């Protein structure tokens, strides 16, 4: 589900999160492990102020473990704990709970010192659409909670979901917008399926992906599509399009006359990437981010 974000939406989304912040102790910031920076809200620090925060790198099952480890170090450097998770299949509920309690630790210690039974730590999940907020909520709740939809305008009574006996979660997550004014961010979001590919030219997205794979995951790309040799210069667009055409031929994406249907080939590339058919792949590493910061 993709929201058309416009300034009014952003203001409302921000206000809704700030209302919720008053009720909670810890924020769970959900990012996509394959593109942690591109799946991050550009104003997150400002919106969350100084609330204790746990970063979860979701869809870790699809991301490159070595790159994810680099991201964990990157966030640690910035004073944030980041934990790789797989909300769809993994079970890291206990780990998440323990870390949230630790982040809330000082207050619990004060309560215990005063002879008060500590109340459960209250958490809020925030993240951009499709990052896995509902999946994680269901996972933490231990059962299926009805989806509430990605509609920033929708308000309803807040409900607390119990996560064991020591944690409570607000049932409606905070929905944030990505940094979509940056074209590279748009490519990465579209490549991972966070935004509808129709918003961009599908062949452009696939070209971006094939180029990134050629540079960083050449062997996986070659193996998946039986490509003997990849171009020496990944910046050579014509040569990259030839790779896409070779993939199209391999998958029977043809139009009359035996020519390759590049749009169909592009869809195949994206579908197989998202399904993890080329292995665990990250489309962004801390060094990519440092490079773009330096520009
Ligand atoms: P929301 O819009 O943030 O609530 O995102 P959803 O919870 O609806 O998840 C979007 C898609 O990502 C769904 O198809 C989920 O099944 C999938 N998904 C969520 N978490 C994970 C994960 O950790 N691993 C994988 N492979 N898929 C996930």
TrEMBL record:
InterPro entries from the UniProt entry: G_CP_dom, GTP-bd, GTP-bd_ortho_bundle_sf, GTP-bd_ribosome_bgen, GTPase_MTG1, P-loop_NTPase
Residue ranges annotated for the CP-type G domain, each copy included: 14-178
Top-rank lineage group of the source organism: Bacteria
Compartments reported by the entry: Cytoplasm
Pfam families: MMR_HSR1
Location (main, coarse): cytoplasm
Keyword terms of this UniProt record: Cytoplasm, GTP-binding, Nucleotide-binding
PANTHER family tied to this protein: MITOCHONDRIAL RIBOSOME-ASSOCIATED GTPASE 1
Family statement: Belongs to the TRAFAC class YlqF/YawG GTPase family. MTG1 subfamily.
UniProt cross-references to NCBIfam families, sorted A to Z: GTPase_YlqF
Protein's name in the database: Ribosome biogenesis GTPase A
Species, as recorded: Paenibacillus baimaensis
């Amino acid at each position: 589900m993709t929201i058309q974000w416009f300034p009014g939406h952003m203001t409302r989304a921000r206000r809704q999160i700030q209302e919720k912040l008053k009720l909670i102790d810890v924020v769970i910031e959900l990012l996509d492990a394959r593109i942690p920076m591109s799946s991050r809200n550009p104003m997150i620090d400002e919106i969350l102020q100084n609330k204790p925060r746990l970063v979860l790198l979701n869809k870790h099952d699809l991301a490159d473990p070595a790159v994810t480890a680099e991201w964990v170090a990157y966030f640690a450097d910035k004073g944030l704990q980041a934990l790789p998770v797989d909300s769809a299949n993994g079970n890291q509920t206990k780990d998440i709970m323990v870390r949230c309690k630790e982040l809330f630790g000082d207050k619990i210690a004060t309560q215990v010192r005063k002879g008060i039974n500590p109340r459960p730590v209250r958490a809020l999940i925030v993240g951009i659409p499709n990052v896995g907020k509902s999946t994680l909520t269901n996972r933490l709740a231990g059962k299926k909670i009805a989806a509430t939809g990605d509609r920033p305008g929708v308000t309803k009574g807040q409900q607390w979901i119990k996560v064991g006996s020591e944690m409570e979660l607000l049932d409606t997550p905070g929905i944030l917008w990505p940094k979509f004014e940056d074209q590279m961010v748009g490519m990465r979001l579209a490549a991972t399926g966070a935004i509808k590919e129709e918003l961009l030219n599908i062949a452009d997205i696939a070209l971006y992906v094939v180029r990134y794979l050629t540079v960083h995951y050449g062997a996986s790309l070659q193996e998946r599509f039986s490509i003997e040799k990849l171009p020496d210069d990944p910046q050579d667009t014509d040569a990259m399009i030839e790779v896409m055409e070779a993939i199209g031929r391999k998958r029977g994406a043809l139009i009359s006359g035996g020519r390759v249907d590049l749009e169909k080939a592009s869809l195949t590339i994206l579908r197989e990437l998202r399904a993890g058919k080329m292995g665990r792949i990250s489309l962004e590493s801390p060094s990519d981010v440092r490079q773009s910061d330096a520009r």
